[in-house]
Structure to design on (546 residues):
């Protein structure tokens, strides 16, 4: 693909212990995309990130960043255009915040340590050892390092794992700003996070690509559903809906009807009222990424 | 490997090693005794005539049969052995600390997320160990060599004859420490493995010094140590692979 920022082409990765982490996978993401790499544990997500980092070598196939094959000539420059937030990395007890940022600045050959310290609220922690910082501040440091060089591509490996809700909210706020206008690959278990931050998903399972699609197209593929609630017991509502001829089921004290609310609900509601059912709620159900993920992975 | 990437990593490594005074102290205390105290004590004993080196001369081993003079025995046999011993001890603990500590505290992920390769990370670590070793060990060795010359015990040719095996031992120890560190999963295992390798190398050194006669003996010993180092580096980088470091 001509403008692909990340490319996996017939890539396999077998570890020395025989584990096949990636099995002939091919996928790519274009410039400007905000993609999410999803999958159960052991599906090959972290292996994919490590192949892109150049930390691991593919057993077969091709992995490329900005068109440059990993560890081939030109890859070093491609890496300097990429900011990476590693998954829950250990922190140095003998290196300060400012020193770690300075190390990153020297390696990326650009960036402003002082500006990064200010932007991420780390100025007062500049001389603290990294291991002395709280989990939230440690994640801010990692984000500051990944973004200091103004990279065109962001690779985020579980950026909020292990954080309390306040710190996670804090990181999400930074990410929303950082991801604007940047190609991003977010690797996460947190489906709500993926849904909030990304436009398309790549689902891996057992080292293979199960699905690569936009969230919008996934939603369109799902049958529209509508949730109804009435003053009468849910069983009575369910019986009335079924008597109307719609496919329905009970859910959390209400009834879920397999239909498009905008197109079909008015007629159904009129019918229910004539049957003496007092409907007080009629809400179209938007499929969450969790629903879609479970459906795809569970197939 | 790019020097532009190794240089900043080297800056980080030397800064970290400098802050870990306990590791530095532990790794430099024994070499201080072996590279400084012991040679000076032997030199003084030999100069004051209080040494029992004649015992060694009276029952010569094949390689030291040509060392009739006790001073020559000191310069051509005992000093090389002490320098090799110090050279082997000095970098091993620092290497193990620099490499294993990174893996044990899981900070390796922080490093590989930066635009560097694992090879560059290891190269910077090994270079930093060599720098620290040079800073700690060379002053001791220099003082001892200077004393030998100033006191007229040995000529200028002794300087390379003693310095080369010391440096070869440092390189050998670094290579073996790298290999064992990649094999070991934790600091303790790495140290134990290091100790296990240390004794055979020491016996090999004694064997070489006693088997080879003449002034070439220290250079042959150096060549042997460098061959061991080359094998260790080759196995570590090819067979063990960097993947093992990340596991």
């Amino acid at each position: 693909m001509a403008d692909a920022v990340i490319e996996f082409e017939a890539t396999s990765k077998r570890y020395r212990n025989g584990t096949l982490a990636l099995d002939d996978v091919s996928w790519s993401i274009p410039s400007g995309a905000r993609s999410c790499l999803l999958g159960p544990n052991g599906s090959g997500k972290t292996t994919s990130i490590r192949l892109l980092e150049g930390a691991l070598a593919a057993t077969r196939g091709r992995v490329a960043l900005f068109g440059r094959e990993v560890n081939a000539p030109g890859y070093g420059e491609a890496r300097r255009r990429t900011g990476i937030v590693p998954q829950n990395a250990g922190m140095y007890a003998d290196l300060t915040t400012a020193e770690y940022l300075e190390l990153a600045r020297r390696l990326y050959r650009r960036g402003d340590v002082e500006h990064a310290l200010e932007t991420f609220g780390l100025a007062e922690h500049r001389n603290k050892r990294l291991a002395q910082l709280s989990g939230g501040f440690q994640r801010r440091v990692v984000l500051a390092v990944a973004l200091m060089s103004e990279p065109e591509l962001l690779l985020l490996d579980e950026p909020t794992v292990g954080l309390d809700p306040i710190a996670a909210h804090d990181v999400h706020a930074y990410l929303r700003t950082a991801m604007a206008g940047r190609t991003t690959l977010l690797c996460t278990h947190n489906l709500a996070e993926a849904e909030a931050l990304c436009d398309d998903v790549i689902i891996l399972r057992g080292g293979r690509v199960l699905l690569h699609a936009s969230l919008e197209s996934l939603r369109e593929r799902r049958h529209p559903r509508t949730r109804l609630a009435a003053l009468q017991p849910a069983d009575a509502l369910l019986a009335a809906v079924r008597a109307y001829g719609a496919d329905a089921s009970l859910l959390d004290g209400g009834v879920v009807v397999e239909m498009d609310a905008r197109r079909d609900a008015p007629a159904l509601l009129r019918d229910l009222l004539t049957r003496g059912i007092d409907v007080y709620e009629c809400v179209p159900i938007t499929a969450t990424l969790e629903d879609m993920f479970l459906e795809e992975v569970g197939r | 490997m790019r020097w532009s990437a190794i240089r900043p990593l080297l800056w980080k490594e030397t800064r970290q090693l400098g802050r870990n005074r306990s590791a530095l102290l532990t790794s430099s205390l024994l070499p201080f005794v072996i590279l400084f105290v012991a040679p000076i004590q032997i030199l003084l004993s030999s100069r004051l005539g209080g040494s029992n080196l004649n015992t060694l001369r009276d029952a010569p081993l094949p390689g030291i049969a040509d060392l009739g003079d006790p001073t020559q025995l000191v310069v051509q046999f005992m000093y090389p052995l002490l320098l090799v011993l110090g050279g082997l001890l000095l970098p091993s603990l620092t290497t193990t600390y620099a490499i294993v500590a990174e893996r044990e505290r899981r900070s390796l992920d922080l490093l590989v997320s930066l635009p560097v390769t694992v090879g560059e990370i290891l190269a910077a670590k090994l270079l930093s160990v060599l720098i620290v070793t040079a800073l700690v060990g060379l002053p001791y060795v220099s003082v001892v060599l200077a004393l030998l010359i100033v006191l007229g015990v040995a000529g200028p040719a002794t300087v390379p004859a003693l310095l080369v095996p010391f440096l070869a031992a440092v390189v050998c120890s670094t290579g073996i420490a790298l290999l064992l560190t990649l094999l070991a999963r934790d600091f303790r295992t790495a140290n134990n493995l290091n100790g296990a390798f240390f004794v055979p190398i020491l016996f090999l050194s004694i064997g070489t010094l006693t088997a080879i006669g003449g002034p070439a003996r220290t250079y042959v010993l150096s060549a042997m140590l460098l061959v061991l180092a080359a094998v260790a580096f080759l196995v570590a980088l090819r067979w063990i692979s960097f993947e093992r470091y990340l596991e």
Summary: The longest helix of chain B spans residues 70-104.
